[in-house]
């Protein structure tokens, strides 16, 4: 089981992020929201993932950065839940949706639930 979150797995393309927000589908598990879109991936990576904490919701940069760090770690530990053998690549954007700062355990459980909902929805659609 690969628990890395390397450079190739990070979502950095502005064009892809724009398309993701325009055409992507979403799944929610409080306080997280996952926007996803199947993509054609040239880097042979199953998921390209980005995390975001809106400035409108969490005011201070210190808190935003801490939440993003915790979200990346929770994703890294739970991404095994969504890996599939079909070879379909996805672009993910995980958004934090509450002004209340949450601890790692709560975020970890929410991420676990979110990945489960995505897996359910993905298998339902295919």
From TrEMBL:
Membrane-spanning intervals of the chain: 80-98
What EC number(s) has UniProt assigned to this enzyme?
A: 3.1.26.5
Q: Which UniProt keywords apply?
A: Endonuclease, Hydrolase, Membrane, Nuclease, RNA-binding, Transmembrane, Transmembrane helix, tRNA processing
Alphabetical list of PROSITE patterns matching this protein: RIBONUCLEASE_P
Q: Which Gene3D superfamilies match?
A: 3.30.230.10
Query: What are the recorded GO MF terms, alphabetically?
Result: ribonuclease P activity
Class of enzymatic activity (EC top level): hydrolase
Q: Which reaction does it catalyse?
A: Endonucleolytic cleavage of RNA, removing 5'-extranucleotides from tRNA precursor
Q: What InterPro entries does the record tag this protein with?
A: Ribosomal_Su5_D2-typ_SF, Ribsml_uS5_D2-typ_fold_subgr, RNase_P, RNase_P_CS
Where on the tree of life does the source sit, at the highest rank? Answer: Bacteria
Protein family:
Belongs to the RnpA family.
Q: Which HAMAP family match?
A: RNase_P
Q: How does it assemble?
A: Consists of a catalytic RNA component (M1 or rnpB) and a protein subunit.
**Protein purpose:** RNaseP catalyzes the removal of the 5'-leader sequence from pre-tRNA to produce the mature 5'-terminus. It can also cleave other RNA substrates such as 4.5S RNA. The protein component plays an auxiliary but essential role in vivo by binding to the 5'-leader sequence and broadening the substrate specificity of the ribozyme.
Name the UniProt record assigns to this protein: Ribonuclease P protein component
- Gene for this chain: rnpA
């Amino acid at each position: 089981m690969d628990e890395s979150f390397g450079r190739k797995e990070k979502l950095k393309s502005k064009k892809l992020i724009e398309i993701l927000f325009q055409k992507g589908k979403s799944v929610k598990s409080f306080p997280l929201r996952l926007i996803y879109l199947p993509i054609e991936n040239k880097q042979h990576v199953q998921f390209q993932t980005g995390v975001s904490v809106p400035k409108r919701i969490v005011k201070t940069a210190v808190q935003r950065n801490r939440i993003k760090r915790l979200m990346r770690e929770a994703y890294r530990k739970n991404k095994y839940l969504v890996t599939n053998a079909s070879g379909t690549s996805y672009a993910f954007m995980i958004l934090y949706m509450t002004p209340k700062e949450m601890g790692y355990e709560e975020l970890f459980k929410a991420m676990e639930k979110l990945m489960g909902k995505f897996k359910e929805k993905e298998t339902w659609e295919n």
